[in-house]
Amino acid sequence: MKIGIEKISFHVPHLYVDMHDLAISRNEDPGKYKIGIGQDEMAVAPLTQDPVSLAANAALNIVTDEDREKIDFVMFATETGIDQSKAAAVYVHRLVGIKKEARSIELKHACYSGTASLQLAKGHIALNPDSKVLIVASDIARYGLNTPGEVTQGAGAVAMIVSSDPKVLELEDESTFVTKDIMDFWRPNYSEYAYVDGKFSNEMYIELFNDVWGQYKEKTGGTLDDFKALCFHLPYTKMGLKALRTILDEADESTKERLLENYTKSTLYSRRVGNVYSASLYLSLVSLLENADLEENGKLGLFSYGSGAVGEFFTARLVPGYKKHLLPETHDKLFNARKQISVPEYEAIFVQSLPKDGSTLELDVEEDPNKVCLAGIKEHQRQYVIK
Ligand code: COA
What we know:
Blueprint: E1 4-11, E2 15-18, H1 19-25, H2 30-37, E3 41-44, H3 51-60, H4 65-70, E4 71-77, H5 88-95, E5 103-107, H6 113-127, E6 132-141, E7 154-163, E8 169-179, E9 185-186, E10 195-196, H7 198-220, E11 229-232, H8 237-245, H9 253-266, H10 268-273, H11 280-291, E12 299-306, E13 310-318, H12 328-336, E14 339-340, H13 343-350, E15 361-362, E16 372-378, E17 381-386
Parallel strand pairs: 2-14, 4-5, 4-6, 11-12
Antiparallel strand pairs: 1-7, 1-8, 2-3, 6-7, 8-13, 9-10, 12-13, 15-16, 16-17
Helix pairs in contact: 1-2, 3-5, 9-11
The protein binds coenzyme A.
Coenzyme A (COA) binds at residues 29, 31-32, 35-37, 148-149, 151-152, 196, 198-199, 201-202, 205, 235-236, 238-239, 307.
């Protein structure tokens, strides 16, 4: 049986900051942000867009009534949890109109939980070939104003339908993974911002990538030349390139050229959005699929990294005709409709927060063009609207 991604799409907030402007206001050379880090724009989420609304907006791009009849599992991958108990997946289940005979769960492991969801979905479909799984990976990356991590913030969500009729990508069984208990990035319950040792997280990302790539070669006898492209978790677009460069010498010249060219294509969307944590690898996958010219049946390698830390390398094949099932026009429209804001406007949005004392808040959703918005909080409950 084939199992894999039948549909995939993403959603980002309607506001962004240009990294040139941010660099100038932080007294940095724009070259550092645009080349050294590799980010052009950063998505900014106003209070009316939270992880749930972003995820629901992404899912509504792909879920049809036919899917609604078959989806019996909703998985929500995030590290921007809005509740210690209630699963964000339950809100998405309602907002997207999934049938009641379904499981809905939230998964957490820093930026890795989208991949954990995909592997769990694969197992579920193997046991229930007639059903479908809706995965949403949604995050708002916040490091704080004037911090080294600020340039790697972002916001957005990816939605995927996994089924036994994969029209885009067929997951292969080759997968290698590693866990290592380290403190490179974490966010204790009492803290609004993550604690991060940026340099150490870069080192660990590369170490775990080399570990799982080494395991993969040993286990399968595969080589870099087998791959049309490698896709990486992208906390910022230079990060995956740093990892890729550590193994490029294993490839012949034409493979090197192909992998570097396709790497660039895989970073185009992330360059305009920033870090979306659990969704980052999948945003780079959509960018690759929609912008590169890849042969049908071509093999892809995907590297997932979640601080704390887990790394996983897995492989997949492009399904013949996959291009027909992508949504480049939808995504193009989404990017083109966004509004650029100034650094002071971004800072003013950044310091706004939802009440923490249980008080009622009504948000003005008129200014927010997204279909699903957070309209406020009442009696400790988030109020969502579908426009
Ligand atoms: N033009 C071009 N490149 C420039 C430049 C310029 N004017 N000025 C600096 N650079 C380059 C540096 O050489 C460096 O490149 P390198 O990483 O290839 O060596 C890069 O820009 C970043 O500069 P650096 O001084 O290392 O940045 P920083 O100390 O501000 O921190 C991070 C960068 C990524 C560590 C920081 O943004 C961070 O902590 N991010 C959050 C954590 C994270 O994303 N971790 C990733 C793994 S999950």
